[in-house]
## 1
Amino acid sequence: MSSNERRRAGRHFLQIPGPSPTPDRILRAMDMPTIDHRGPAFQKLGLRVLEKLRALFKTKGHAFIYPSSGTGAWEAALANLFAPGDCILMYETGQFATLWKNMAGRLGLAPEFLSGDWRSGVDAGMIEKRLRQDSERKIKGVCVVHNETSTGVTSNIEAVRKAIDAAGHPALLLVDTVSGLGCADYRHDEWGVDVSVAGSQKGLMLPPGMGFNAVSEKALASSRQANRPKMFWSWEEMIPHNNNGYFPYTPATNLLYGLDVAIDMLNEEGLNNVFARHQRHGEATRCAVRAWGLDIVCRDEALHSPVLTGVLLPEGHDSDRFRQIVLDRFDMSLGIGLGRLAGKAFRIGHLGDINDLTLLGALSGVEMGLGLAGVPHKKGGVDSAMVYLSQTTTPDGRT
Ligand SMILES: *Cc1c(COP(=O)(O)O)cnc(C)c1O
């Protein structure tokens, strides 16, 4: 804060769909001296967090931790498996799918992009059809985004695996769950995912700075055949070190202290309660948006994201101006419209360490902001959310 900026009392409302607010308990856990990453104390931490991370992904396979953002974990997945010229099939759910596709192109791969409308999920039928046409089995991988953070649509990953199997195709399944892990149900092994990609700053409530891969045995075997130079991202380089709780280079030690506690916190709440809480907050948010009479970006009732809600403003109303008003007046950050939704939509993040009253605070900021920005809407959104929240609980009878 510069000296001429006035201090704002209370907590900033960080209601973007990642980074999400970091709980004090995690901040305290990271407030430690950085230890020798080759020493015995580190070894225990390393073994513990790798074990907990595998459990969170619901895999008995491998989990890898990089000192990177989620984008690094995307690159790790592609770099370990594919060589220049390799064909991969990707699906356009929104901006994050588009960025991953662009990365694949920049790495010299040949991504084929099945186009989508940015308002619905992955069409598994389209994937099956395309794989059936690939009689020469040129497609090496299918890449999809689990929770598309630019739109607020969560795709059915199990259906994508079933489509690949129905086509009898050997392609690997790669899934971006950067904003899904720790918020929405995710089952790496059960859903037959080969590589899952995630990051620290969304459902895991940590600061940015760590990227994760969960990797099946099939993907690991495939990476050994892949004819592409790699070092920093190499799973093979990591494994012998990880087996002893160490890393081939300096890990983000203090973030790992945080990860240890973050996963404990998710487990103490109970993963199913965490998922139910996110679902419930998603529905409460949609109650508000419907009452305001605004359009939700996700068009498919079954695929609404529990992580965030994308909201379209009426034609002629600039979502960035609206967001600026909310920030200036109420000290709340809302997510920007990304890619083709720039200026047209904003996103309400309802992920991570938030409760009913945090959400209601956020929704009241949105409702007041709509009024101040002169966006045509009906009042009563927050009331609808309050009614929904008072009438429902998570399965264990709490919130
Ligand atoms: C945030 C996000 C990313 C990118 O992660 P960075 O940490 O910003 O590199 C990728 N995919 C999805 C779905 C995301 O939400």
## 2
Amino acid sequence: MTTAPVTKEQLAIHGGTPVRKTLLPYGRQLIDEQDIQAVVDVLRSDWLTTGPRVGEFEEAFAAWVGAKHAVSFSSGTAALHAAAFAAGLKPGDEAITSPMTFAATANCVLYQGATPVFADLSPDTLNLDPEQAAARVTARTKAILPVDYAGHPADLDAILKLADRHGLVVIEDACHALGAEYRGRKVGSLAHMTVFSFHPVKHLTTGEGGMVTTNDAGLAEVLRRFRNHGISSEARQRQSAGQSHYEMVLLGFNYRLTDIGCALGLQQLKKLDRNLARRREIAARYTTEFRKVPGVIPPSVRPDVNPAWHLYPIQVDRARLKGDRGMVFRALRAENIGVNVHYIPVHYHPYYRERFGYRGGEFPIAEAAYERLISLPIFHGMSDHDLEDVIAAVSKVTNHYAN
Ligand SMILES: *Cc1c(COP(=O)(O)O)cnc(C)c1O
């Protein structure tokens, strides 16, 4: 067997030296001493859960996004479930959503016994196309769940107008978009309900956690009950009022976020502006660099938004490369760049195929995008050195496969 001489530019996947020695993940949390101290303080206090930190975090969060109410949950998925419940989704109802998302967005409709109906995307943003969504409205449609893909807000004015025309509830899945702005307004009070996640790869973390924001006091009340077994008062209220009586008024869950998580969230919120600025700086640098790299199409941004950059998804330009997405992906992984694919379209998952009979071909824009997408690492704790490694690896790999 003969081996080619190992040169600096030889791809790691072919035996060359990787750009990095250790894997750079696509996303990760940033925790400092203040965060740790805040959690330790809660551990020494009387309330590990349903205590004072919960309300403090919710108020601070609502103020930050500019919404009247914020209700915390044990995860973004629990928050989506609660929003689907509060929207009144039930068996026989339909809710329109994007196939280019994490399965939880559509699953929350199924939790309520309702049917998720996918609609195809706008090719530039890979967000729900309002015209495609309009074409899917039926007499059974009750809600619409746009997803702010990668942190780029969905076309909310068009979606809200459509919802208004048909009396639909808009649940915005903003799990990628904490801090994003749409036409000068922050995501969080634009839809009837807006859902956030505090998983460690997101902009702010509580370990696991989520939030629904709304300007509607009635919805906020239902959301609060739903996360606490459907009980109409909370333990601490009863303790301070000296009462033991409580009533369960709807079928809820235990979806509460702990004081441990909320204390961490409060500290993380203080650093959110700085962390968002860093994500925007990284995205800007990537876009400047990748505009010059043949074979790579950087994500496009509409002029009326300021994205929050949860993800930085490039598309592989098959016309300018010998390899396909899979080859570029594997080569970047070998260089120790922790690339990912967001997302395999939801209707491709075996569960959805089997239950709803999808065969592929239903949503051509989402499906074609999926074949080209690669998420590059982006997180607020990324160093300049990490950033240069990603740029070097993408250039190295696309150079190799350039035709
Ligand atoms: C992260 C995420 C969720 C789920 O949030 P969890 O907190 O992990 O339950 C839902 N939708 C989208 C688009 C997400 O990115």
